[in-house]
Amino acid sequence: MHLIEKAGRLRTLLRFAVPSVLLVYASSAHAADITLGIIGPHEYDLPVDFKPFNVLVQYGDGNAAGNSYNSTGQRQARGGSHTWAGMTKYVHFRSFEAIPHVGFAFELIQSESYTLANGTDYGGLGPTIVGPAAWFKPNAHSTLGIQTFMQTPVGTRDATSPNYWSNISSIIFDYEWKHFSFDGDIGTVTGSTKHVKNQHSYAPGVVFYSNLRFSWKATSRIEPFLAFDWQNVNGTYDNTARQYMDNSSSREVAMGPGLMFTLSKSVSVTARYSHSLEGRNTPETNAYYMKFVYAW
Hints:
The chain is mostly beta strands. It has one domain (53-295): Autotransporter beta-domain (Lipocalin, Beta Barrel), CATH 2.40.128. Helices cover 3% and strands 57% of the residues. It starts with 5 loop residues before the first helix and ends with a strand. Pfam families: Phenol_MetA_deg. Keywords: Signal. Residues 1-31 form the signal peptide. InterPro entries: FApF. It comes from Acetobacter orientalis.
């Protein structure tokens, strides 16, 4: 895609929200979100050789997980929760004359969450996420890059604090046809040792995930799409007891439809629904997602 004028760049920016992350906090009871499940179509349809610009993105999602999957993958009417989460994100994009045909972005993300489960409710600000992304275009219709982020260990309260540092890294890609587009990522999340005063020490399991988005460019303002998300979480190791925690590994596959609306050259809104296809040791996904993008 050739970006010639600033207005053209802004219109293209609204077709993706820059690379982003939403992690489950300390326990699967807090949320059923798959890592990077919030992304929309054209998430990685990124330009190169451009003048610096900025993007503000507000994400929101709600998950009515009335059911859960047990260790054998059976769906059961218990162990679920209702969660609401948000992310407020500022991103600065730029390229460098000394590094032609490569784009860069730096993100600052603040997460928010609220949970209703087991007769209790709690919420607040979650961890802060920061990091860069870089990409190039193998040809005029495609994008290939990498992103890596660090997530801080604390939020505004214990229930929204994972209590360990995390690194989220993934390969990102996009391909554009005249009437269709295909976006995706594949990556891992690794965490440092979890230390909480007067509790055991834990080594969080490595997370593997992938998110795919296939969209139809119906009009210049409306774009339906189909989302596919997969995540596998290795078991948590109890360093103090020297054994893996029971039923601490999990897996989930989810899919759902969505619509992206381009309201103007500077504003877009994306809405989507997603539901689990199968899982293990996790609340089911029965979620809706919203995304608001403003570019300048």
